[in-house]
Amino acid sequence: MAGRSFAQWGNDLYTGRRSYPIVQTRSRWFAVTGVLAVASVLILVLQGLNLGIDFRGGSEFTVSGVATKDQDLAVEAVQSVVPGDEARVTSVGQDAVRVQTTELTKEQTDAVADALAEAYDVDASQQITSAFIGPTWGQGVSQRALIGVLTFVVAVAIFMAIYFRAWRMSVAAIVAMLADLLIAAGVYAAVGWEVTPSTIIGFLTILGFSLYDKVVVFDKVRENTTGVLEQSRSTYAERANLAVNQTLVRSINTSVVALLPVAGILFVGGFLLGAGALRDISLSLFVGIAVGAASSIFLATPLDVALRVREPKIAEHTEKVLQARAGLVEGGADDETLAAVAAGSAQLVPGHHLGHAAQPRKRR
Q1: Among candidates 83, 84, 114, 112, which has minimal Cα distance to 99?
Q2: C-beta of residue 245 within 8 angstroms of C-beta of residue 20
Q3: What is the mean pLDDT of the chain?
Q4: What are the distances in angstroms from CA 277 to CA 60, 64, 150, 363?
Q5: Can you say whether residue 76 is alpha, beta or left, with left for phi > 0 and alpha for psi between -120 and 50 degrees?
Q6: Alpha helix (H) residue ranges in 235-275
Q7: pLDDT tens-place string over residues 299-350
Q8: Residue 42 has pLDDT above 90, yes or no
Q9: pLDDT per residue as tens digits for the range 246-291
Q10: Same domain for 189 and 71?
């Protein structure tokens, strides 16, 4: 019964029998997005991202076959050799510990390895490995990550402008995707997990998912608003709102299908196995997919409408439709008359839906 009710709900959204004023209440969603964006900026500025060794450089030790994964033992071992060094210790798998420090000399590296071997009661030559990543490597990785994100954003802007032949949709999509990236980064900073190359891959992946979801919604908006100026029954905002409602179920289904396996990877890789790469990429994916789906519904299309209604032609047409509708209401027209006048368009009278008759007519 629950599945049938959900299917009926989706059918009602598509036909226009049920509708949510998402576009009409866009100021509310803009405010929510603004609050989340400001909060993310504050977290990033005050707390900052916990950059991994691949970005900041330093020395890394892996202690395998340990009987206990007490992180304090590693911290004390490092500080016994390098006082004041804030070692970053994480668990790896079932019986290993990873210790990251600042850049150490050869003598300090050997001394830290011996101290870790003594602390965890392991053989330093067989159960402890060390590696060094210089600052030049970290700077190169950071630059490539930034170039990758900027290249993606520019390519998306060009694609959206060419595909939809409307620069306002392109701007709305870019702003929504940047908001997705900012909020996801804020959540990542708040959690405090390390930013690794796997994290960057996750961020680029969520941008791709966000773009896909917005293209689907905008494609429906374009279909519904084709020829909107040639009729006087519905406004651009109303037809765009119908498009959002029609794609709402699809966005929910796609997001749930994508989030379930990512949640499984996040739980198993991050909390059970302690696998760093799985944890890093799954958290960014989980947050990004959820935020991307929400922004496609509550930010991208409302922002496009906010830009389009400022166009002189759209504004004039909207005023014309509202005046005609007000005249009918003041004239005492009943619901049947209003429905007859509104035949062939969507949500012409606030709160009044027309079922299959609400769908925009395609010209032959």
Answers
A1: 112
A2: yes
A3: 78
A4: 16, 17, 24, 52
A5: alpha
A6: 236-246, 248-267
A7: 999 999 999 988 889 888 888 888 877 766 555 555 555 544 443 333 444 4
A8: yes
A9: 888 888 888 888 888 888 877 776 666 555 566 777 777 888 888 8
A10: no
Element (H, E) at 339: helix 335-341
Query: What's the token pair of residue 249?
Result: 């179920």
pLDDT digits (tens, 9 = 90+) for 172-225: 988 998 898 889 888 888 887 777 777 877 777 877 888 888 888 898 898 888
Examine the domain organization and report whether 118 and 240 are in the same domain.
no
> Side chain identity at 305, as an amino acid letter?
V
Q: Per-residue b/e over 62-93, b at no fewer than 16 CB within 10 Å?
A: bbbebeebeeebbbebbbebbeebebbbbbbe
120 and 14 both lie in a single domain = no
The amino acid at residue 156 is V
Instruction: Look at residue 69 and tell me whether its pLDDT is greater than 60.
Output: yes
Overall domain count for the chain: 2
Q: How far apart are CA 32 and CA 36, in angstroms?
A: 6
The amino acid that residue 138 corresponds to is G
Q: Are residues 275 and 167 in the same domain?
A: yes
Q: Closest by alpha carbon to 51, among 202, 198, 186, 195? A: 195
Output the CA torsion 206→210→215→216 (10° steps): 100
Do 216 and 271 lie in a common domain?
Answer: yes
* Token duo for residue 358: 């609400």
Do 67 and 197 share a structural domain? no
Enumerate long-range contacts of 144-150, CB under 8 Å, 24 or more apart: 145/197, 145/200, 148/200, 148/204, 149/181, 149/203, 149/204, 149/207
Q: Say if strands 128-133 and 50-51 run parallel, antiparallel, or are unpaired.
A: unpaired
Which residues constitute the domain of residue 145? 9-51+137-313
Least Cα distance to 217 among 314, 104, 294, 326 occurs for 294
Q: How confident is the model at residue 39 (pLDDT cuts 50, 70, 90)?
A: very high
pTM above 0.90, yes or no: no
Element (H, E) at 359: none
Task: Report the CATH number that the domain containing residue 276 is assigned in CATH.
Answer: 1.20.1640.10
Side-chain-side CA neighbours of 247 within 13 Å: the count stands at 28
